[in-house]
């Protein structure tokens, strides 16, 4: 129920923002392709509210574009149903993963020290426990080939900004490379992003808060083929 309520709330906000954004001066003089990209960035900002506070700003346009999708009507329902099914499967098969349905995407969060994907202090190698989790997730991703995947790395505040930025990059790429080289996920489906300590979701002054901030997000979104198939099926 928690996931469903959050999904409904964000979809409602997405509708409001999309309507307002579509009618503003910034989009009135654009063509349909440009307008779609602009609206997609708003949707990306909504997912950014879960992944990090500034995902949707101009400095993170690449991630906003990667996770933004604007679909409505019957096509949106069809895509939503497919993503719901995938989210439920992930939640059932991967204990320890926090799975949230946001707009047309799925946000998976692994945080703490023993929560599916974790790293030793200042390390970024994929340990045995994390390998098992990634193997399970990769198997599900292969069942849904018409999706793209973003891996997003974060750290707590221990250490310098520069070292944490490098550490979050190395950890995110460790996950991405594991997907590609060990599980056979096509690299064209994957993008990698990292934010160091800049996007905390909890208090870095507590042990528990630090554990929450040392996290990896996996963001799954429908790719262009899924969207086009849904539009055709919906009669667009």
General description of the model:
The protein is of the alpha+beta class and 236 residues long. It has a single domain, classed as OmpA-like domain (60s Ribosomal Protein L30, Chain: A), CATH 3.30.1330.60. The chain has 9 helices and 5 strands; from the N terminus they run αααααββαβαβαβα. It has a 5-stranded mixed sheet with strand order 1-2-5-3-4, sandwiched between helices. Helix 1 runs antiparallel to helix 3. The longest helix is centred in the last third of the chain and has 23 residues. The radius of gyration is 18 Å and the shape is elongated. The relative contact order is 0.15.
Topology of helices and strands:
Blueprint: H1 2-23, H2 25-28, H3 32-51, H4 61-67, H5 73-93, E1 98-102, E2 105-110, H6 128-143, E3 147-153, H7 161-183, E4 190-194, H8 207-213, E5 216-222, H9 224-233
Parallel strand pairs: 3-4
Antiparallel strand pairs: 1-2, 2-5, 3-5
Specify the CATH architecture.
Answer: 2-Layer Sandwich
Strands of the largest sheet, in order across it?
Answer: 1-2-5-3-4
Annotated CATH topology: 60s Ribosomal Protein L30, Chain: A
CATH class: Alpha Beta
Structural class category: alpha+beta
Characterize the largest beta sheet: strand count, sense, and whether it forms a barrel: 5 strands, mixed
Distance between the termini: 32 Å
CATH superfamily: OmpA-like domain
The helix content, as a percent range, equals 55-70%
